[in-house]
From TrEMBL:
Lineage of the species this protein comes from: Bacteria, Bacillati, Actinomycetota, Thermoleophilia, Solirubrobacterales
Record-annotated B5 domain positions: 405-481
Cross-referenced Pfam families: B3_4 (PF03483), B5 (PF03484), FDX-ACB (PF03147), tRNA_bind (PF01588), tRNA_synthFbeta (PF17759)
FDX-ACB domain ranges (all copies): 710-802
Subunit structure: Tetramer of two alpha and two beta subunits.
Catalytic activity: tRNA(Phe) + L-phenylalanine + ATP = L-phenylalanyl-tRNA(Phe) + AMP + diphosphate + H(+)
Organism of this sequence: Conexibacter woesei (strain DSM 14684 / CCUG 47730 / CIP 108061 / JCM 11494 / NBRC 100937 / ID131577)
PANTHER family given in the database record: PHENYLALANINE--TRNA LIGASE BETA SUBUNIT, PHENYLALANYL-TRNA SYNTHETASE BETA CHAIN AND LEUCINE-RICH REPEAT-CONTAINING PROTEIN 47
Name used for this protein in its record: Phenylalanine--tRNA ligase beta subunit
Length: 803
């Protein structure tokens, strides 16, 4: 929602600049996304001028040399290319030194040999319209030399609000003015719908029938003698500043009334309403409607349509139909302002992929009372700007569900206010705040009886909601830091939460960046990952109401999201990516039960394994072993007894894939992404792993047991063994540790050799052994005995010692 301050100040003008007002509103819960400037940077050097002469340029067919009266002794010469430049008209002039909205600074120029002292302006040059056909023609009574800013709204700051779904009242300028009034104390002007030029009672010339529960209220007024034409410049300027494109006076009036009141309207050409009767009903299979955007849309029974004798003529609450739209020859207008069921409008808009200003408002739940507020504003503008005559009477029809217009009254207790906020708020202050926000207040024995206005009916339903209103306006920043009342409760993290945080902290400490991906995935992800038909990760749960086609399924794996993040970074010039994500995936449970939601931890590395330095200008790529190093660092920090064994995944490189075991159970996979799949994401060599964090944490040992670090020396020996190349090194280390017994303090592989000296199909592993006893210095015989046992165990694997 874009709110031009020049428009807002007509209803509430606080003594605050745009930035200060944005901060104040943000502190009360009305989030200001940004402050924009619309129009010219400065109004200096823009003046009213009158064309005294307009002669053909001597060397250009499309240019004219004009002499302008600007209130000075001598006329000003300006070269103009507009076809409507002629003597006698009053125009807008930008003199040398003026800055246009795009930042261009005008200078004295020479066009085809003729000096020009400025520019005669069209609407588009100062952002008050979109007409490019010629220059603006101003009121002939204006005095030449008058600053243009006194005549036209050339410049304004604009607040761009992020309105939450529960506050549709802030989707209108007057609703925002009400918030500003409450937040700043600045006076609030009277509501723009207080004086109605129309009347109640029967309306001749049209009929309306509402045959659906999804339309609580439908109002109609008729205007005769309508003259279609351009809107006045002030109206165009306000629409442009608020993000709306001016079209014609009648259409602009509906948009202006919507932006002011927050409630959409729609104008029908009454002569194009077949039979002079409108029927509001649920759609039917086979209904077809061409909407104002030129698209033909097929409707269904879950949509609401407005029909005339020839069929659907408007898609209720979303967009009007082309068949009955207002056009240049329109002389009679039927103005409709209705209320619709919000969830139904949202479903219709999403299903058709058709978003509009109207649907974005109706889906948030506008009150039926707002329909007549908008109708009243539109009536005044139709009479003033189109020369129309409003026909006596108003059709005001309720749907089958109806609406009673009741206003709930809620008791606001003083004790409850102070108890919930932890600070005293005087009753008089609470009444002042709520009255400023449009609530009715009356004293009660223990507080206030508060009447909820219609525009907050769906938002404020209980006492706590009223307390929130008081707190946000009085100032949440004023509330003291107090602890809530407790009855023996103690706040602490569960063991699961502690370990999950430790895992994230460990990876962040290792230099990885945490990412938070979508909980959804595109339907084609399973094919891109080459998951076989029987893979349970293919059986993704469809989202009934997805935000887009890319979010059509609940995710069953983290790797797709990690690849997307890596691709986005790489394509933006960040070649070295090290990321992780911790989150749930969703696996179908069957039998109508809720899905299983295992919590996974995923890591992805691509690019260099570590930063380049002067000693290592080209560090190694992130490969299987780089990912395994991160895995080891993580699982060791969690104190998990883990190992890896050969494994396979459809999306991993054959021979560079492994299964991760913890506590003897498979808890995840590790490996390099298959080159073809990595290339599909515009990536080169990429390694990754995912772990079922719940299963990993289930394998964490109990409380840590600390042992003395012995002062007795250790005996270190190296051992080289030749084995078949297909014997896993992890299996070798495991056998060595078992054979070494308690005296073998450590065993690790420190070198691998393949070559002619060991023969084809063989590999030499060099192991470093450390023997130590916590009680005594070991003898040579004890070490020799353990070494012999290790050599014998290695022989059982088919290994032989190298000299």
């Amino acid at each position: 929602m874009k709110v031009p301050l020049s428009w807002l100040h007509e209803h509430c003008h606080p003594d605050l600049g745009a930035d200060a007002l944005a901060t104040r509103l943000a502190l009360t819960g009305t989030e200001v996304e940004r402050v924009l400037h619309h129009g010219v940077p400065s109004e200096e050097s823009f003046v009213v001028a009158r064309v005294l002469e307009a002669e053909q340029h001597p060397d250009a067919d499309r240019l004219r040399v004009t002499q302008l009266d600007v209130g000075e002794d001598e006329p000003v010469q300006v070269v103009c290319g507009a076809p409507n430049a002629r003597a006698g008209i009053t125009v807008a002039l930008a003199r040398p030194g003026a800055r246009l909205p795009d930042g261009t600074k005008l200078k004295k120029a020479k066009l085809r040999g003729v000096v020009s002292h400025g520019m005669i302006l069209g609407e588009s040059e100062v952002d008050i319209g979109v007409d490019h056909s010629g220059i603006m023609e101003l009121d002939g009574d204006l005095i030449p030399g008058t600053p243009l800013g006194n005549v036209l709204p050339l410049s304004t700051d604009v607040l761009e609000l992020e309105v939450t779904p529960n506050r549709p009242d802030c989707l209108g300028v007057y609703g925002v003015a009400r918030e500003v009034h409450a937040a700043t104390g600045a006076p609030l002007g009277s509501a723009p719908w207080e004086q109605d030029l129309g009347s109640d009672g029967p309306l001749e010339g049209a009929e309306v029938a509402v045959e659906t529960e999804r339309c609580p209220r439908f109002t109609v007024r008729i205007f005769d003698n309508v003259t279609i034409g351009p809107s006045p410049h002030w109206l165009k300027a306000r629409l442009m500043a608020a993000g709306q494109r001016p079209i014609s006076n009648v259409v602009d009036i509906t948009n202006y009334a919507m932006l002011l009141t927050g409630h959409p309207l729609h104008a029908f050409d009454l002569d194009r309403v077949a039979g002079g009767r409108l029927t509001v009903r649920d759609g039917r299979d086979g209904d077809v409607l061409e909407t104002l955007d030129g698209e033909t849309r097929r409707l269904d029974a879950d949509m609401v349509v407005i029909c005339d004798a020839d069929g659907p003529t408007s898609l209720a609450g979303v967009m009007g139909g082309a068949r009955s739209e207002v056009h240049d020859g329109t002389t009679r207008v039927l103005m409709e302002s209705a209320s619709w069921n919000g969830p139904n409008i949202q479903r219709t808009s999403t299903r058709l992929g058709l978003r509009s200003e109207a649907s974005g408002r109706f889906e948030k739940g506008l009150s039926p009372e707002q329909a007549m507020e908008a109708q009243t504003v539109a009536t005044r503008l139709m009479v003033e700007l189109t020369g129309a005559t409003v026909r006596p009477g108003t059709l005001d029809v309720a749907g089958s569900a109806g609406w009673d217009g009741a206003h709930a009254t809620i008791r606001l207790r003083d004790a409850r206010v102070s108890g919930l906020l932890g600070a005293e708020v005087p009753r008089s202050r609470s009444a002042e705040i709520l009255s400023a926000l449009g609530f009715g207040t009356a004293d009660a024995a223990d507080g206030l009886d508060v009447t909820v206005p219609h525009f907050r009916r769906n938002d404020v339903t209980r006492e706590a909601d009223l307390i929130e209103e008081v707190a946000r306006i009085d100032g949440v920043d004023k509330l003291p830091a107090t602890l809530p009342l407790r009855r023996g409760a103690a706040g602490r993290l569960t063991p699961w939460q502690q370990l999950r945080r430790r895992a994230a902290d460990t990876l962040a400490g290792a230099g990885l960046h945490e990412v938070i991906g979508w909980s959804w995935s595109p339907p084609e992800l399973a094919d891109r990952l080459r998951l076989p038909a029987e893979d349970p990760r293919r059986a993704a749960i469809a989202v009934e109401n997805p935000m887009s086609a890319e979010h059509g399924l609940l995710r069953t794996t983290l790797i797709g999201g990690l690849l997307d993040v890596a691709r986005r970074n790489v394509t933006h010039g960040i070649a070295d990516v090290a990321i992780f994500e911790s989150g749930a995936v969703y696996l179908p449970a069957g039998n109508g039960e809720l899905p299983h939601e295992p919590h996974l931890l995923g890591v992805l590395l691509t690019g260099a394994a570590r930063p380049a330095t002067w000693r290592e200008p080209q560090p190694p790529e992130s490969d299987f072993f780089a990912a395994k190093g991160v895995l080891a660092h993580l699982l060791d920090a969690l104190r998990v007894d883990w190992s890896v064994e050969p494994g396979a995944e459809p999306f991993l490189h054959p021979g560079r894939a492994a299964s991760v075991l913890a506590g003897g159970h498979r808890v995840g996979w590790l490996g390099e992404i298959h080159p073809a799949i990595a290339a599909d994401w515009d990536l080169e060599r990429t390694a990754a792993f995912t772990l079922d964090l719940s299963a990993v944490i289930g394998a964490v040992a109990g409380p840590a047991v600390y042992a003395d670090y012995t002062s007795f020396p250790e005996v270190r020996q190296d051992l080289a063994v030749v084995l078949a190349d297909d014997v896993p090194a992890g299996e070798v280390v495991r056998i060595v540790r078992e054979a070494g017994g308690p005296l073998l303090a450590d065993a690790e592989v420190f070198d691998v050799y393949r070559g002619a000296q060991v023969g084809e199909g063989k590999v030499s592993l060099a192991l470093r052994l450390a023997f130590r006893s916590p009680e005594r210095t070991l003898t040579d015989d004890e070490v020799a005995e353990r070494r012999s046992a290790i050599e014998e165990a290695l022989a059982g694997l088919g290994g032989s010692l190298r000299a």
